[in-house]
Amino acid sequence: MTSRFGLAVAGALLLTASFAGSASAEEHVVKMMNANGKGKFMLFEPEFIKANVGDTVKFVPTNKGHNAEMIPGLWPEGAAEFKGDLNQEVVLTVDKPGIYGIKCHPHYPMGMLAMVVAGDPTNKAQLDSYAPPGTAQKRFDALKEQVGK
Ligand SMILES: [Cu+2]
User: Fold this and answer.
1) Distance from the CA of 48 to the center of ligand 1, in angstroms?
2) How confident is the model over 72-120, as pLDDT tens digits?
3) N or C: less crowded end of the chain, CB within 10 Å?
4) 126 inside domain
């Protein structure tokens, strides 16, 4: 009995170790939505994504009328360009460390943006130089706050 228990513990430890040491890429899923039911309209859910280089972020059109595309003023140097079509699922491959700004083209002035932060925020200076349009500033500032954490 004791030895069998010991074996189970050893197995569990082994499993934990292999997970911790795994370098396999993660897929993050972000919904594109009209409302979150908590008084927020036109949004990516979640809006802030902490990722690792090599991960992917899949943007899913949960509601119609949205897309996901890069914010050119907030994009890691050398990272591939990114633009999804309206109502289409699109996958961002995180190929460089840094801060990736994502917007929905139709609703960007209403603040529909997301940030993906992977590894070192190499382009952090862009957070200060970049000026989002209209009421996007408020959500931009909230996301910017999270990058520092
Ligand atoms: Cu939208």
Assistant:
1) 16
2) 999 999 999 999 999 999 999 999 999 999 999 999 999 999 999 999 9
3) N
4) yes
3-class secondary structure, 3: helix
Positive or negative CA dihedral for 36, 38, 39, 43? negative
**The total number of structural domains that make up the chain:** 1
- Its domain, for residue 32, covers 25-147
Q: For the chain, first and last CA: distance in Å?
A: 47
105: domain CATH number?
2.60.40.420
Question: pTM of the prediction?
Answer: 0.84
Residue 121 CB contacts under 8 Å (≥ 6 apart), including other chains: 97, 98, 99, 147
Give 136 Cα–ligand 1 centroid separation in angstroms. Answer: 12
- Phi/psi region, residue 142 (left: phi>0; alpha: psi -120 to 50; beta: rest), is alpha
CA 108–ligand 1 middle distance (angstroms): 7
* Residue 84 is assigned to a structural domain of this protein: yes
CA neighbor of 46 nearest in space, from 27, 28, 26, 30: 30
- Range 55-66 burial, b when 16+ CB lie within 10 A, else e: bebebbbeeeeb
